[in-house]
Amino acid sequence: MRVEVLLARLPHGEDLPLPSAATPGSAGLDLASAEDGVLAPMERRLFATGFAIALPEGYECQLRPRSGLALRHGITLPNSPATIDSDYRGELKVALVNLGAEPFAVTRGMRIAQMVVAPVASVQFLTVRELPATGRGAGGFGSTGR
Fold it and tell me: What is the mean pLDDT of residues 137-142?
């Protein structure tokens, strides 16, 4: 399935690559930083991407960590996956956190996150007195691992 997403480059992102898949089978599209910055250990910061998008109604954009940055440097997203709603029109910014022991330098053009465009179900809640029974019931937090 191909989804058309409108993308507006912002002046500070004109020369940056568009979000793109690293391989034909990649689910996520790599996002590059539009700015330089250093993240100290345990520091959180927003990094600009240099573009804004318009998603079709019924879709969201999820921002996710890059596995290599997470494994090698402890760089991840504090709210992963982050959700960009279809009615948001501002610049995409990526919140990064450094869970590593060393400062981490983000450079302009560096791939810092991935984005996944996904459909979102419209929900209508129906209030009932009792929920249908299942084999699991109300068991949670490790109850299925026994």
Answer: 77
